[in-house]
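Example 477, ligand flavin-adenine dinucleotide.
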Amino acid sequence: MAKVVVIGSGFAGHTAALYLGDAIGKAHEVTVINKYDYFGYVPAWVWVGVGSMAPEKTIFDLEPVYDKMHVGFVHGAATEVHPDDNFVMVDPAGGGEPIRVDYDFLVVATGPRLDFESTPGLGPHGGHTYSICTLDHAVQARDAYHEAIGRMEAGEHQRLVIGTGHPMATCQGAAFEYITNIHKDLVRRGVRDKADLLWLSNEPAVGDFGVRGVHVKQGDRIMGSDEFLLALFDDYGIDSAVQRGVQSIDESVIHWENYEGEYGETPYDFAMLVPRFLGVQMKFIGEDGTDISEKVTNPGGLILVDAQYGLPYEKLKDNPDAWPGRYQNPTYRNLFAAGIAFAPPGPISVPHTTPNGTSITAVAPRTGMISGIIGRIVAKNLIDMVEHGRMPHEERMSHMAAACIASMGDSLWDGSAATIIMYPVVPDPNRYPNEFGRDLFVSEMEMGLAGAWMKRMIQTTFMYKLKGKPGWKIIPE
Ligand SMILES: Cc1cc2nc3c(=O)[nH]c(=O)nc-3n(C[C@H](O)[C@H](O)[C@H](O)COP(=O)(O)OP(=O)(O)OC[C@H]3O[C@@H](n4cnc5c(N)ncnc54)[C@H](O)[C@@H]3O)c2cc1C
């Protein structure tokens, strides 16, 4: 009987667990270790952060789903992995002695460590800014945002700054969706004229999203996401400042460096800035008791997999095969990483180093959709490995699409959304010999009410799928 252990129950780990439990959960042992006893539908935390969705509508209990799917559940935080001896140590959520969980195959799907520490003054843990990256953070952001609204209603002018809080941040899509939702909410409350909204980001251009932007063919011309979103910002009265790496934040001012190496300041009253994402703090211990993390992770703590690391950007940008297909650690072949936890071989977006030597680079996103697909690929390989001793499945991000439905309010009557679809996420100039390396006919950018319906439908169908309800497998990641 094989033991498969999954650490982390987000889009990647939970998807993997459903496929594993369904296929081999009865005959083998599948166990999930997760810090929380609930699944969080992260994209909806944008709405929680504005106050338009109740936090409890974005989560569900994991244990009943795992009982049904023949998956064991350990509620706690994995603190150590012993890859020579194939076990994980877990601090149980309720306290008490650490638990040892043995495995034959391990999937690390722990998502990001939110690295607020690298930007002094960033984040809700002792800093001055807010985040929507966890449910607690989104609730805190909502409360602070509502206080700012109270000040506007009392006649004060407020400056709201949304974007990225580190020169190497990712996840611009979530922040973009937050600023447009805030705009919509302020209009609805009749206080839009009391607020300045500023988009502050490390992207080379508005709409880059860490993927070198999105481009679509419209008749004879190509439209880029920069043009599409700048027009939208113009329409909404949102200012933008890109090519900026935030260095530190004090009570009322954000300090940044720009591409030219100049230092500047942006005053604010409320700020939601996404931190840099690193790998979670989990030690990898060798058989002699020493720390062997460098055999398993990159310096940022993300798990090394079957990617080609160390290529200069010029060689990486036209080489989709540098991206991993199996998400398997090259040293420990029974260790896999899914979702944000795997180390990408480099950026998709064009990197930039300032004259002061600071890298201001929008790091490659691993969205919810991508994380779910990777979770499925890893699970399918493990199922085949356990049942037939082989791993036939491979899917690189150069074969995955991403859909960003940036809602601007969640109302099904007057809501709206910018629907941006791109294929593939990692450009492949061999298959798509245009200057963008992407399929310009599949890629799409649309604005309208249909997007608001789509966003709601996706949440409803994903929550249905992820609860393992009848027919869950036919709903794609
Ligand atoms: C506000 C917001 C909106 C977004 N909107 C979209 C969107 O519209 N579309 C889209 O495709 N993507 C979106 N994303 C991105 C998407 O949410 C992430 O890509 C996705 O959550 C990554 O999945 P994951 O499984 O890798 O990590 P996570 O979802 O972060 O899951 C990791 C899990 O591991 C657990 N964990 C961590 N460390 C440990 C440990 N040591 N032991 C045990 N458990 C641990 C965590 O508690 C968590 O449950 C959004 C992100 C944010 C922040």
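Summary: The first strand starts at residue 3 and ends at 7.
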